[in-house]
Amino acid sequence: MALILYLTQIQIDFGARRLLTAECERLGITRPLIVTDAGVRAAGVLQQVLDELPPPVRDAIYDGTPANPTETAVRAAAAMFERNGCDGLIAVGGGSAIDCAKGTAIVARHPGPLKHYATIEGGSPRITDACVPLIAVPTTAGTGSEVARGAILIVDDGRKLGFHSWHLLPKVAICDPELTLGLPSLLTAATGMDAIAHCMETFMAPPFNPPADGIALDGLGRGWAHIERATHNGADRDARLQMMSTSAQGALAFQKGLGCVHSLSHALGGVNPKLHHGTLNAIFLPAVTRFNAEAESMRKDRRLQRMAQAMGLAQGDEVPGAIRAMNQRLGLPTGLAAMGVQREWFERIVEGALADHCHKTNPRLATAQDYRDMLEASM
Fold first, then answer.
1. From residue 248, how far is each of 43, 71, 283 by CA, in Å?
2. Cα–Cα distance between 246 and 259 in angstroms, integer?
3. Tell me: the pLDDT tens digits for 126-153?
Protein backbone atom coordinates (compact mmCIF):
# COMPACT_ATOMS: atom_id res chain seq x y z
CA MET A 1 0.00 0.00 0.00
CA ALA A 2 1.30 3.47 -0.88
CA LEU A 3 1.93 5.85 2.03
CA ILE A 4 1.97 9.54 1.05
CA LEU A 5 2.98 11.81 3.93
CA TYR A 6 4.22 15.44 3.88
CA LEU A 7 4.80 17.03 7.27
CA THR A 8 7.71 19.50 7.44
CA GLN A 9 6.86 23.21 7.62
CA ILE A 10 8.98 24.81 4.91
CA GLN A 11 9.92 28.49 4.91
CA ILE A 12 11.54 29.27 1.55
CA ASP A 13 12.46 32.80 0.52
CA PHE A 14 15.29 35.28 0.67
CA GLY A 15 15.76 36.30 4.31
CA ALA A 16 13.82 33.28 5.66
CA ARG A 17 16.49 32.84 8.36
CA ARG A 18 14.93 35.81 10.17
CA LEU A 19 12.07 33.49 11.14
CA LEU A 20 14.38 31.22 13.12
CA THR A 21 13.75 32.70 16.58
CA ALA A 22 10.00 32.59 16.09
CA GLU A 23 10.17 28.98 14.96
CA CYS A 24 12.24 28.03 18.03
CA GLU A 25 9.63 29.67 20.24
CA ARG A 26 6.80 27.89 18.42
CA LEU A 27 8.47 24.52 18.99
CA GLY A 28 9.40 25.30 22.59
CA ILE A 29 13.15 25.11 21.91
CA THR A 30 14.89 27.36 24.43
CA ARG A 31 18.45 26.01 24.33
CA PRO A 32 19.37 24.43 21.00
CA LEU A 33 22.58 22.70 20.05
CA ILE A 34 23.66 24.17 16.71
CA VAL A 35 25.22 21.48 14.51
CA THR A 36 27.41 22.71 11.65
CA ASP A 37 30.87 22.21 10.16
CA ALA A 38 34.11 24.14 10.18
CA GLY A 39 33.75 25.26 6.55
CA VAL A 40 30.32 26.82 7.08
CA ARG A 41 31.68 28.60 10.13
CA ALA A 42 34.84 29.83 8.37
CA ALA A 43 32.84 31.13 5.39
CA GLY A 44 30.80 33.37 7.70
CA VAL A 45 27.55 31.64 6.78
CA LEU A 46 26.99 30.33 10.30
CA GLN A 47 27.31 33.87 11.63
CA GLN A 48 24.50 35.02 9.33
CA VAL A 49 22.26 32.51 11.08
CA LEU A 50 23.56 33.20 14.59
CA ASP A 51 22.84 36.91 14.10
CA GLU A 52 19.13 36.04 13.97
CA LEU A 53 19.20 34.35 17.40
CA PRO A 54 19.37 36.05 20.82
CA PRO A 55 22.78 35.57 22.53
CA PRO A 56 21.64 33.06 25.19
CA VAL A 57 20.28 30.75 22.44
CA ARG A 58 23.43 30.56 20.33
CA ASP A 59 26.11 29.44 22.79
CA ALA A 60 26.18 25.69 22.17
CA ILE A 61 27.80 24.99 18.78
CA TYR A 62 29.17 21.71 17.46
CA ASP A 63 31.24 22.37 14.31
CA GLY A 64 33.03 19.03 13.98
CA THR A 65 30.82 17.50 11.28
CA PRO A 66 33.01 15.73 8.67
CA ALA A 67 32.22 15.70 4.94
CA ASN A 68 30.62 12.26 5.39
CA PRO A 69 29.18 12.27 8.92
CA THR A 70 30.29 9.47 11.22
CA GLU A 71 29.06 7.82 14.38
CA THR A 72 32.06 9.38 16.14
CA ALA A 73 30.90 12.86 15.19
CA VAL A 74 27.31 12.06 16.16
CA ARG A 75 28.39 10.90 19.61
CA ALA A 76 30.56 13.99 20.10
CA ALA A 77 27.60 16.20 19.24
CA ALA A 78 25.31 14.21 21.54
CA ALA A 79 27.80 14.60 24.39
CA MET A 80 27.81 18.38 23.86
CA PHE A 81 24.01 18.33 23.75
CA GLU A 82 23.97 16.61 27.15
CA ARG A 83 26.65 18.83 28.73
CA ASN A 84 24.83 22.00 27.76
CA GLY A 85 21.37 20.87 28.82
CA CYS A 86 20.00 21.38 25.32
CA ASP A 87 16.39 20.75 24.35
CA GLY A 88 16.51 20.98 20.57
CA LEU A 89 18.76 20.97 17.50
CA ILE A 90 19.42 23.51 14.75
CA ALA A 91 21.40 22.13 11.81
CA VAL A 92 23.18 24.77 9.73
CA GLY A 93 24.97 23.46 6.65
CA GLY A 94 24.66 21.00 3.82
CA GLY A 95 23.41 17.45 4.00
CA SER A 96 26.34 16.37 6.17
CA ALA A 97 25.50 18.75 9.01
CA ILE A 98 21.78 18.01 8.77
CA ASP A 99 22.37 14.25 8.76
CA CYS A 100 24.80 14.58 11.67
CA ALA A 101 22.07 16.43 13.57
CA LYS A 102 19.58 13.65 12.75
CA GLY A 103 22.03 11.10 14.12
CA THR A 104 22.36 13.25 17.23
CA ALA A 105 18.58 13.34 17.54
CA ILE A 106 18.65 9.53 17.76
CA VAL A 107 21.70 9.02 19.98
CA ALA A 108 20.78 11.72 22.51
CA ARG A 109 17.54 9.92 23.38
CA HIS A 110 18.09 6.25 22.42
CA PRO A 111 20.50 3.68 23.93
CA GLY A 112 22.93 1.35 22.21
CA PRO A 113 25.11 1.51 19.09
CA LEU A 114 23.94 3.67 16.20
CA LYS A 115 23.82 0.72 13.78
CA HIS A 116 20.97 -0.71 15.89
CA TYR A 117 18.73 1.96 14.31
CA ALA A 118 19.86 1.54 10.69
CA THR A 119 17.20 0.70 8.12
CA ILE A 120 18.89 -2.45 6.79
CA GLU A 121 19.32 -3.67 10.39
CA GLY A 122 15.55 -3.42 10.92
CA GLY A 123 16.12 -0.35 13.04
CA SER A 124 13.47 2.07 11.76
CA PRO A 125 10.76 0.91 14.23
CA ARG A 126 13.27 1.33 17.08
CA ILE A 127 13.47 5.09 16.43
CA THR A 128 10.76 6.63 18.60
CA ASP A 129 9.13 10.00 19.15
CA ALA A 130 11.72 10.59 21.88
CA CYS A 131 13.94 12.02 19.10
CA VAL A 132 15.15 15.55 19.74
CA PRO A 133 13.20 18.17 17.71
CA LEU A 134 15.22 19.52 14.78
CA ILE A 135 15.17 22.72 12.72
CA ALA A 136 17.17 22.46 9.48
CA VAL A 137 18.80 25.48 7.81
CA PRO A 138 20.41 24.29 4.54
CA THR A 139 23.37 26.25 3.17
CA THR A 140 23.63 24.23 -0.06
CA ALA A 141 20.99 23.31 -2.63
CA GLY A 142 21.55 19.60 -2.99
CA THR A 143 20.69 16.85 -0.54
CA GLY A 144 17.25 18.05 0.51
CA SER A 145 17.86 16.51 3.93
CA GLU A 146 15.99 19.47 5.40
CA VAL A 147 12.68 17.89 4.31
CA ALA A 148 13.63 14.20 4.36
CA ARG A 149 12.97 11.50 6.95
CA GLY A 150 16.35 9.84 6.38
CA ALA A 151 20.02 10.32 7.17
CA ILE A 152 23.15 8.68 5.78
CA LEU A 153 25.84 8.02 8.38
CA ILE A 154 29.06 5.99 8.59
CA VAL A 155 28.83 3.72 11.62
CA ASP A 156 31.73 2.49 13.68
CA ASP A 157 32.20 -0.70 11.63
CA GLY A 158 32.84 1.41 8.49
CA ARG A 159 29.53 0.86 6.71
CA LYS A 160 27.68 3.83 5.23
CA LEU A 161 24.08 3.19 6.28
CA GLY A 162 20.69 4.80 5.95
CA PHE A 163 18.49 5.71 8.91
CA HIS A 164 14.81 6.34 8.19
CA SER A 165 11.96 7.38 10.44
CA TRP A 166 9.24 10.00 10.35
CA HIS A 167 10.52 10.98 13.82
CA LEU A 168 13.74 12.21 12.16
CA LEU A 169 11.88 14.60 9.88
CA PRO A 170 12.87 18.20 10.69
CA LYS A 171 10.02 20.12 12.28
CA VAL A 172 10.92 23.17 10.21
CA ALA A 173 13.08 23.79 7.14
CA ILE A 174 14.40 27.35 6.85
CA CYS A 175 15.38 27.55 3.16
CA ASP A 176 17.06 30.91 2.61
CA PRO A 177 18.77 31.18 -0.81
CA GLU A 178 20.89 34.09 0.47
CA LEU A 179 22.90 31.55 2.45
CA THR A 180 23.98 29.90 -0.82
CA LEU A 181 25.14 33.04 -2.67
CA GLY A 182 28.77 32.51 -1.68
CA LEU A 183 28.86 28.78 -2.44
CA PRO A 184 31.89 27.93 -4.66
CA SER A 185 31.06 26.99 -8.26
CA LEU A 186 32.15 23.34 -8.08
CA LEU A 187 30.21 22.78 -4.87
CA THR A 188 27.20 24.48 -6.46
CA ALA A 189 27.50 22.12 -9.41
CA ALA A 190 27.98 18.95 -7.34
CA THR A 191 25.16 19.69 -4.90
CA GLY A 192 22.91 20.84 -7.74
CA MET A 193 23.44 17.60 -9.63
CA ASP A 194 22.69 15.74 -6.41
CA ALA A 195 19.29 17.47 -6.32
CA ILE A 196 18.68 16.70 -10.00
CA ALA A 197 19.65 13.06 -9.42
CA HIS A 198 17.08 12.87 -6.62
CA CYS A 199 14.36 14.21 -8.91
CA MET A 200 15.27 11.83 -11.74
CA GLU A 201 15.87 8.70 -9.73
CA THR A 202 12.74 8.98 -7.63
CA PHE A 203 10.69 9.64 -10.79
CA MET A 204 12.09 6.41 -12.27
CA ALA A 205 11.33 4.40 -9.10
CA PRO A 206 8.28 2.15 -9.56
CA PRO A 207 6.22 2.66 -6.36
CA PHE A 208 2.84 4.38 -6.81
CA ASN A 209 3.02 7.99 -5.65
CA PRO A 210 1.61 10.49 -8.19
CA PRO A 211 2.24 13.56 -5.97
CA ALA A 212 5.91 12.57 -5.69
CA ASP A 213 6.12 12.09 -9.46
CA GLY A 214 4.70 15.57 -10.08
CA ILE A 215 7.00 17.21 -7.55
CA ALA A 216 10.02 15.38 -8.98
CA LEU A 217 9.30 16.31 -12.62
CA ASP A 218 8.78 19.97 -11.74
CA GLY A 219 11.97 19.95 -9.66
CA LEU A 220 13.89 18.37 -12.55
CA GLY A 221 12.71 21.08 -14.92
CA ARG A 222 13.69 23.86 -12.52
CA GLY A 223 17.08 22.34 -11.72
CA TRP A 224 18.03 21.54 -15.31
CA ALA A 225 17.11 25.06 -16.47
CA HIS A 226 19.03 26.87 -13.71
CA ILE A 227 22.03 24.82 -12.57
CA GLU A 228 24.43 26.31 -15.13
CA ARG A 229 23.39 29.85 -14.23
CA ALA A 230 23.81 29.14 -10.51
CA THR A 231 27.21 27.51 -11.11
CA HIS A 232 28.69 30.13 -13.41
CA ASN A 233 27.13 33.18 -11.75
CA GLY A 234 26.79 32.50 -8.04
CA ALA A 235 25.14 35.88 -7.47
CA ASP A 236 22.18 35.04 -9.74
CA ARG A 237 19.43 35.25 -7.12
CA ASP A 238 16.71 33.67 -9.21
CA ALA A 239 18.91 30.71 -10.12
CA ARG A 240 19.82 30.23 -6.44
CA LEU A 241 16.13 30.28 -5.47
CA GLN A 242 15.22 27.77 -8.18
CA MET A 243 18.03 25.41 -7.16
CA MET A 244 17.00 25.59 -3.50
CA SER A 245 13.49 24.64 -4.57
CA THR A 246 14.86 21.77 -6.71
CA SER A 247 16.75 20.47 -3.69
CA ALA A 248 13.69 20.49 -1.44
CA GLN A 249 11.47 19.04 -4.17
CA GLY A 250 13.84 16.15 -4.83
CA ALA A 251 13.74 15.15 -1.18
CA LEU A 252 10.00 15.65 -0.83
CA ALA A 253 9.64 13.25 -3.75
CA PHE A 254 12.15 10.62 -2.71
CA GLN A 255 9.98 9.32 0.09
CA LYS A 256 8.85 7.20 -2.90
CA GLY A 257 12.29 5.58 -3.13
CA LEU A 258 15.55 5.95 -5.05
CA GLY A 259 17.62 3.33 -6.87
CA CYS A 260 20.97 2.15 -8.21
CA VAL A 261 22.53 5.62 -8.42
CA HIS A 262 22.28 5.93 -4.67
CA SER A 263 23.05 2.28 -3.97
CA LEU A 264 26.36 2.76 -5.76
CA SER A 265 27.09 6.19 -4.28
CA HIS A 266 26.41 5.02 -0.73
CA ALA A 267 28.55 1.92 -1.19
CA LEU A 268 31.45 3.79 -2.78
CA GLY A 269 31.21 6.51 -0.14
CA GLY A 270 31.67 3.80 2.46
CA VAL A 271 34.80 2.52 0.70
CA ASN A 272 36.25 6.04 0.40
CA PRO A 273 34.46 8.59 2.63
CA LYS A 274 36.40 11.47 1.05
CA LEU A 275 34.42 11.20 -2.20
CA HIS A 276 31.63 13.76 -2.60
CA HIS A 277 28.20 12.14 -2.68
CA GLY A 278 26.63 14.60 -5.15
CA THR A 279 29.53 14.25 -7.56
CA LEU A 280 29.22 10.47 -7.45
CA ASN A 281 25.49 10.71 -8.18
CA ALA A 282 26.21 12.91 -11.20
CA ILE A 283 28.73 10.38 -12.56
CA PHE A 284 26.54 7.31 -11.97
CA LEU A 285 23.34 8.85 -13.34
CA PRO A 286 24.00 8.26 -17.10
CA ALA A 287 24.86 4.56 -16.75
CA VAL A 288 21.97 3.88 -14.38
CA THR A 289 19.50 5.72 -16.63
CA ARG A 290 20.60 3.57 -19.58
CA PHE A 291 20.19 0.44 -17.47
CA ASN A 292 16.73 1.54 -16.30
CA ALA A 293 15.54 2.33 -19.83
CA GLU A 294 14.76 -1.37 -20.32
CA ALA A 295 12.47 -1.57 -17.28
CA GLU A 296 8.83 -2.36 -18.03
CA SER A 297 7.58 0.49 -15.83
CA MET A 298 9.83 2.97 -17.66
CA ARG A 299 8.45 1.94 -21.06
CA LYS A 300 4.85 1.60 -19.97
CA ASP A 301 4.66 5.07 -18.36
CA ARG A 302 7.01 6.75 -20.87
CA ARG A 303 9.13 7.89 -17.96
CA LEU A 304 12.30 8.44 -19.94
CA GLN A 305 10.40 10.53 -22.49
CA ARG A 306 8.71 12.57 -19.76
CA MET A 307 12.08 13.33 -18.16
CA ALA A 308 13.43 14.34 -21.56
CA GLN A 309 10.53 16.75 -21.99
CA ALA A 310 11.23 18.35 -18.59
CA MET A 311 14.88 18.75 -19.67
CA GLY A 312 13.99 20.32 -23.02
CA LEU A 313 15.13 17.29 -25.02
CA ALA A 314 13.37 15.76 -28.02
CA GLN A 315 13.82 12.05 -27.25
CA GLY A 316 14.22 9.93 -24.13
CA ASP A 317 17.35 8.24 -25.43
CA GLU A 318 19.09 11.64 -25.36
CA VAL A 319 18.90 11.82 -21.55
CA PRO A 320 22.10 9.90 -20.57
CA GLY A 321 24.26 11.82 -23.05
CA ALA A 322 22.73 15.13 -21.96
CA ILE A 323 23.66 14.38 -18.34
CA ARG A 324 27.27 13.61 -19.33
CA ALA A 325 27.43 16.83 -21.33
CA MET A 326 25.99 18.82 -18.43
CA ASN A 327 28.55 17.37 -16.02
CA GLN A 328 31.30 18.45 -18.42
CA ARG A 329 29.90 21.98 -18.80
CA LEU A 330 29.70 22.31 -15.03
CA GLY A 331 33.35 21.31 -14.63
CA LEU A 332 32.62 18.08 -12.74
CA PRO A 333 34.92 15.02 -13.10
CA THR A 334 34.51 13.07 -16.34
CA GLY A 335 34.31 9.73 -14.53
CA LEU A 336 35.22 7.72 -11.47
CA ALA A 337 38.85 7.30 -12.56
CA ALA A 338 39.29 11.07 -12.39
CA MET A 339 38.21 10.86 -8.72
CA GLY A 340 40.80 8.19 -7.94
CA VAL A 341 38.44 5.21 -7.88
CA GLN A 342 40.24 1.88 -8.40
CA ARG A 343 38.81 -1.20 -10.14
CA GLU A 344 40.02 -3.37 -7.26
CA TRP A 345 37.37 -1.64 -5.15
CA PHE A 346 34.55 -2.91 -7.37
CA GLU A 347 33.67 -6.05 -5.41
CA ARG A 348 33.35 -4.12 -2.15
CA ILE A 349 31.22 -1.52 -3.89
CA VAL A 350 28.99 -4.17 -5.46
CA GLU A 351 28.56 -5.93 -2.11
CA GLY A 352 27.53 -2.65 -0.48
CA ALA A 353 25.19 -1.68 -3.31
CA LEU A 354 23.32 -5.00 -3.16
CA ALA A 355 22.77 -4.49 0.58
CA ASP A 356 21.80 -0.82 0.33
CA HIS A 357 18.27 0.31 1.21
CA CYS A 358 17.89 1.96 -2.25
CA HIS A 359 18.65 -1.24 -4.18
CA LYS A 360 15.16 -2.72 -4.21
CA THR A 361 13.33 0.45 -5.33
CA ASN A 362 15.18 0.68 -8.65
CA PRO A 363 12.84 -0.01 -11.61
CA ARG A 364 15.08 -2.93 -12.65
CA LEU A 365 16.51 -5.19 -9.97
CA ALA A 366 20.25 -5.09 -10.57
CA THR A 367 22.47 -8.14 -10.23
CA ALA A 368 26.07 -8.09 -9.09
CA GLN A 369 27.17 -8.19 -12.75
CA ASP A 370 24.83 -5.30 -13.59
CA TYR A 371 26.49 -3.23 -10.89
CA ARG A 372 29.95 -4.16 -12.20
CA ASP A 373 28.87 -3.07 -15.68
CA MET A 374 27.54 0.25 -14.39
CA LEU A 375 30.76 0.86 -12.49
CA GLU A 376 32.84 0.14 -15.58
CA ALA A 377 30.64 2.41 -17.72
CA SER A 378 31.14 5.19 -15.16
CA MET A 379 34.94 4.98 -15.00
1. 23, 25, 21
2. 19
3. 999 999 999 999 999 999 999 999 999 9
